[in-house]
């Protein structure tokens, strides 16, 4: 059994949102919290509710420590400087990255059927986009389904958060993250670590060839990738955006998605139902209509 490379990035631990202090309010003033909310909305489109003060305190106080700062005012000044080298870490600290392999499995069943039909009908690769891929489980799950459907395809996997992208690209996970997968899937798509890498699994090279990672802010006016897609996953991210941002995003997805293509959204998201270019084709799944 091949060994994973020594020193490979360890999977990122989930952020703890439980307050470290009983009363974060005394250390993160209302004013500074207001500035944080305004900045993260501006940089990432993320709406933070007023109830997130403890969460913000816990996540950002680590950044203050890393930068050797003792107050939030000075930290926020640093974040707002032109060409600030802290802005990326600020955004990374405030994103919520919960994900899993084959999360919301109905989407992958639909993808399997779509990929099989595509493979039977044409030889062009099926182009898929995991547009808020977090630590990569969604993108790798898409690639696994394409292989299982024997469908040639590619996956673009993007996120705003550069920390999660590093984990995603490393493609190495604790065994527990993949433990719920059927044994056949595990065997087919992962290598098991041994020795010093016991307890880790690594994505097989065949899948790695299919997936490309990159940073992309969904609300930035220009996206580097302007290619078309047959399948877009945009799950559990627009829930943080306001309606106007959601609407604009949807219009851009409609432009990028080939007729008959699929858009998968998160379990509590229904934003495409309002757009005439999409019709519902299953639970939180939409098909691009028109030519
Ligand atoms: C809860 S995770 C969802 C992961 C995956 N799509 C899923 O459903 O399992 C949300 C992801 O959206 C990303 N995100 C937040 N704002 C974003 C933005 N403006 N552009 C791109 N990604 C963003 C976060 O970094 C995070 O990794």
In short:
With 291 residues, this protein is α/β, with parallel strands linked by helices. It has two domains: 24-94, Chemotaxis Receptor Methyltransferase Cher, domain 1 (Orthogonal Bundle); 106-288, Vaccinia Virus protein VP39 (Rossmann fold, 3-Layer(aba) Sandwich). It contains eleven helices and ten strands.
Give the SSE map.
Blueprint: H1 30-44, H2 53-66, H3 72-80, H4 87-94, H5 106-121, E1 126-130, H6 137-148, E2 153-159, H7 162-170, E3 172-174, H8 175-178, H9 183-189, E4 190-192, E5 200-203, H10 205-208, E6 211-215, E7 229-234, H11 243-256, E8 257-265, E9 278-280, E10 285-288
Parallel strand pairs: 1-2, 1-7, 2-6, 7-8
Antiparallel strand pairs: 3-5, 4-5, 8-10, 9-10
Helix pairs in contact: 1-3, 2-4, 5-6
This protein binds S-adenosylmethionine.
S-adenosylmethionine binds next to loops.
Describe this structure in words.
There is one protein chain. The strands form two sheets. The protein has a seven-stranded mixed beta sheet with strand order 6-2-1-7-8-10-9. Strands 3-5-4 form a three-stranded antiparallel beta sheet. Strand 9 and strand 10 (285-288) form a beta hairpin. The protein is globular, with a radius of gyration of 20 Å. Helix 5 (106-121) packs across helix 6 (137-148). 38% of the residues lie in helices and 17% in strands. The protein is α/β, with parallel strands linked by helices and 291 residues long. The protein has helices spanning 30-44, 53-66, 72-80, 87-94, 106-121, 137-148, 162-170, 175-178, 183-189, 205-208, 243-256, and strands at residues 126-130, 153-159, 172-174, 190-192, 200-203, 211-215, 229-234, 257-265, 278-280, 285-288. It has two domains: 24-94, Chemotaxis receptor methyltransferase CheR, N-terminal domain (Chemotaxis Receptor Methyltransferase Cher, domain 1, Orthogonal Bundle); 106-288, Vaccinia Virus protein VP39 (Rossmann fold). Residues 1-16 have low confidence and may be disordered. It binds S-adenosylmethionine. Residues 44-46, 95-99, 103, 132, 134, 138, 159-161, 164, 217-219, 235-237, 266 line the site of S-adenosylmethionine (SAM).
């Amino acid at each position: 059994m091949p060994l994973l490379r020594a020193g490979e990035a360890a999977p990122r631990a989930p952020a703890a949102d439980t307050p470290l202090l009983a009363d974060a309010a005394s250390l993160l003033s209302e004013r500074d919290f207001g500035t944080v909310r305004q900045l993260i909305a501006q940089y990432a489109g993320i709406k933070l509710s007023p109830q997130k003060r403890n969460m913000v305190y816990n996540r950002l106080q680590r950044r203050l420590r890393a930068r050797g700062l003792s107050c939030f005012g000075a930290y926020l000044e640093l974040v707002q400087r032109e060409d600030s080298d802290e802005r990326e870490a600020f955004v990374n600290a405030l994103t919520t990255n919960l994900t899993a392999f084959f999360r919301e499995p109905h989407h992958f069943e639909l993808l399997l059927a779509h990929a099989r039909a595509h493979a039977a009908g044409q030889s062009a690769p099926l182009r898929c986009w995991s547009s808020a891929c977090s630590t990569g489980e969604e993108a790798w799950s898409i690639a696994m389904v394409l292989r299982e459907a024997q469908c040639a395809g590619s996956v673009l996997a993007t996120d705003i958060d550069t920390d999660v992208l590093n984990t995603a690209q490393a493609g190495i996970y604790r065994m527990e993250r993949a433990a719920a997968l059927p044994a056949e899937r595990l065997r087919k798509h992962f290598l098991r670590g041994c020795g010093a890498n016991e307890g880790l699994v690594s994505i097989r090279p065949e899948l790695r060839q299919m997936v490309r990672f990159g940073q992309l802010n969904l609300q930035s006016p220009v996206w580097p990738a302007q290619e078309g897609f047959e399948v877009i996953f945009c799950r559990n991210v627009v829930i943080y955006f306001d309606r106007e941002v959601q609407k604009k995003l949807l219009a851009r997805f409609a432009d990028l998605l080939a007729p008959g293509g699929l858009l998968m959204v998160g379990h509590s998201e229904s934003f495409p139902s309002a757009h005439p270019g999409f019709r519902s084709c299953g639970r939180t799944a939409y098909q691009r209509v028109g030519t």
